[in-house]
Amino acid sequence: MKRVIFILFLIYGVTFAQNKLNFDFDYACFSFDSTATYVELYYNINQATLAHVVKNDSIFVSAYINVNVYDSLNQKTEIENTFQVINSFPAADSFQNQNLIGKVNYTLNKGKYKLSITVTDGYFKDNNKTIVEDLTIIPYFSNNFMISDIELASNIKRDGADPNSYFYKNSYEIIPNPVSIYGENVPVLFYYCELYNLADDRYNKNLMLERLVVDGLGRVVNRKVRAITGNNESIVEVGQLNLMKYPSGIYSLVMNLVDTSKNVGITSNKKFYLVNKGVIDSTKYSAKGSDVLTSEFGAMENEELDELFEACKYIASQSEKEQYGNCDSLQAKRDFMFKFWQRRDDDISTPENEYKNSFMKRVEYAKSRFTEFQKNGALTDRGRVYITYGEPDEIENRPNEVDSKPYQVWYYNSIEGGVEFVFCDLSGYSQFQLIHSNKRGELRDANYMNRIKQAKDY
């Protein structure tokens, strides 16, 4: 086999990716039947992080995608699916900013699941990445009106929509945006959702659909309301938003379906990220360094502040931890957090605290990517390491070795001349614990491989 691969490389020429494999995924759930839900998974693979083969005047990239859905309650694998995606383009074309975007569909019954997606480079198997998330399925069949998840998209076509496209549904061609990032390159947010059980005479003449855009401080920056008319059992809701006037930050798209006669309703929301470097949020930064009340901390409540400081403990001194523990009021906590980050502002001449923004991005990423069952991803071992030291230079993922528990090794080449962190799923429930690191001050176990190589008992 090695000889065959070597000959293939000589004939075609293989260029390995300069960066480790990078991909993102998202999902949305829709109604299927009375017991099951239709789950759409959207993936986005950065082609520049894949090895590429040059054949004649074309470049080829390939990736294998493994989808594993584990039933947490019944303790069994519900879905195990691996498929390959291939793309080719003229060698003269630039592909650095192009992505492999696709969709795959499944049906799942009501329950709690662990969703794991692994992408492996088709031409370089050691280049791979795994993302794990919790997935809760609730069927949409009900006696009351309901609303599906929101699918975020980079474009939605109705005129000229291709019925043969992977992205075609309900007369629309919907190009998903799994990274959920918008800005100068993708200035318009498109969205799609479905409304169900609308024909009931109890409320079908009193339904209102409210669309909100809410910023990271809970402020509504955009609102649109319309009445739901007609006697259809279900309808599709599509729309778009131009985001170029809003400052960078984390936002939520919120859809509220409300029975106005009883003032009751149901909500669906989706987080997205906006990068607009040319727009400054004057309300947020106008009093930087002078007034806690005009900062983001002035609007936070006890629970938000406590959750934030749990992540801040990774960089806080022992004295600062004690100071926060001694805060005896909401205002005291707000004042502490304001001063905590003010002390860490590397450049007070700019309107933003770049260090804090970078730290908070890592916190949000850890929360979204490393959540384990009901544990906040920022408070897991992988979350702590990611927040403290940043993105690893390399991740070695070993999910299915014989007589070995799943484990990952994270490498940081620029710390102390090169360090590693070893995480192992000791329980079998995708709960990766730090079992060894050669970083000074971290957990060290020279015999950690013995724990990994123990016979699997699950």
Number of strands: 24
For the biggest sheet, the summary is:
6 strands, antiparallel
Low-confidence stretches: 1-12, 282-289
Let me know the average pLDDT: 85
Supply Rg. 24 Å
Q: Count the DSSP helices.
A: 8
> What's the shape?
globular
Strand coverage percent: 35-45%
Separation, N- and C-terminal Cα atoms: 33 Å
Outline the fold blueprint.
Blueprint (H helix, E strand, L loop, with lengths): L1 H11 L1 E2 L7 E9 L4 E11 L5 E4 L2 E14 L4 E15 L8 E11 L1 E11 L6 E10 L8 E2 L3 E7 L10 E2 L2 E5 L4 E3 L4 E9 L10 E8 L5 E8 L7 E8 L6 E11 L4 E12 L6 H4 L16 H11 L5 H8 L4 H13 L11 H16 L11 H9 L4 E5 L8 E6 L6 E7 L6 E6 L10 H5 L6
Parallel strand pairs: 14-20
Antiparallel strand pairs: 1-4, 2-3, 3-7, 4-5, 5-6, 5-8, 8-9, 10-15, 11-13, 11-15, 12-13, 15-18, 16-17, 16-19, 19-20, 21-22, 22-23, 23-24
Task: Tell me about this structure.
The protein has 458 residues and is α+β, with helices and mostly antiparallel strands. It has helices spanning 2-12, 282-285, 302-312, 318-325, 330-342, 354-369, 381-389, 448-452; strands at residues 14-15, 23-31, 36-46, 52-55, 58-71, 76-90, 99-109, 111-121, 128-137, 146-147, 151-157, 168-169, 172-176, 181-183, 188-196, 207-214, 220-227, 235-242, 249-259, 264-275, 394-398, 407-412, 419-425, 432-437. The strands form five sheets. Strands 1, 4, 5, 6, 8 and 9 form a six-stranded antiparallel β-sheet that branches. Strands 10, 11, 12, 13, 15 and 18 form a six-stranded antiparallel β-sheet that branches. It has a five-stranded mixed β-sheet with strand order 14-20-19-16-17, with no helix packed on it. A hairpin with a 6-residue loop joins strand 22 and strand 23 (419-425). Helix 6 (354-369) runs antiparallel to helix 7 (381-389).
